[in-house]
Write a structure and sequence with these properties.
single chain; mainly beta; five-stranded antiparallel β-sheet; 28% strand
Length: 260
């Protein structure tokens, strides 16, 4: 028995299929979406497109009127034409890093996001936002976290931003966080689409492999208040200009698609 694919007749027993994740279709594509770790198992050779986003870093906490840095976005990587064969490919979805506690210095740091991977392809978790005061730096990661900052006897203290693209990929998986200036002491995390500027976190990147356009891997804001959505890879917000814990980063996501 054979079926016409639109370009050729193919034997039914040679048609490609795969298991793993949540399976949907959109237009000419079959899509496997992993919001938690699992296995992608094809029944034969195929060329697939892929999206791998790591977990975002947690924002730094804040015990007073200082500011913990925003967490860096998880690394964002995507590509086409990856050849798979009839074997199981391990898929890992990185968790978002926890937000920092209401403490100064490194005790108020957020946590780094978890790495995500599809087989041999991986992306790096977002860097943590630094806890406030004491020139406390943000952490490196797929995108870097913002440095912690605050005032000590009227003198501004500035934490260095965390570096992005920790995996040394080309194109880059994300950008550095930011330090602060005298006027702007909320520090933001880097995003996959660019570096932050003062109050504005690093932008994310839009992708439609899920079947609709979704923006992933935005940096966390130092001003606080926003909870990162799961499976976006967004960085968590810092504690802001009041006593508050930092926000957790968004967990990552892996998507594999192929022509049906």
């Amino acid at each position: 028995l054979a079926v016409y694919s639109g370009t050729a007749w193919e034997l039914m027993n040679s048609l490609f299929s795969a298991t793993g994740g949540t399976i949907t279709t959109s237009g000419a594509y079959t899509i496997h979406t992993f919001t938690s770790s699992g296995t992608f198992t094809p029944n034969g050779p195929k060329s697939v497109d892929w999206l791998v986003v790591a977990g975002g870093g947690g924002g730094g906490g804040n015990p007073s009127s200082d500011s913990g840095g925003g967490g860096g976005a998880g690394g964002f990587r995507t590509g086409t034409g990856f050849s798979v064969t009839a074997q199981a490919y391990t898929v890992t979805v990185g968790a978002g890093g926890a937000g920092g506690a209401q403490q100064n210095g490194s005790a108020g740091n957020g946590a780094k996001g978890g790495n995500s991977s599809f087989g041999s392809i991986s992306s790096t978790g977002g860097g943590f936002g630094g806890g406030p005061t004491g020139d406390n730096p943000g952490g490196p990661g797929g995108s870097g976290g913002g440095g912690g900052s605050g005032y000590n006897t009227g003198t501004l203290t500035v934490g260095d931003p965390g570096a992005g693209n920790q995996g040394s990929y080309s194109p880059v998986e994300g950008y550095a966080g930011t330090a602060t200036t005298f006027q702007y002491y909320w520090t933001a995390g880097g995003g996959a689409g660019g570096q932050p500027t003062e109050y504005t976190p690093g932008p994310g990147v839009a992708n439609s492999y899920s079947g609709s356009s979704v923006t992933y891997a935005e940096g966390g804001d130092g001003q606080g208040g926003i909870v990162s959505v799961a499976n976006t890879g967004n960085g968590g917000d810092g504690g802001g200009n009041a006593a508050a814990n930092g926000r957790a980063g968004g967990s990552g996501i892996v998507i594999v698609r192929y022509l049906t």
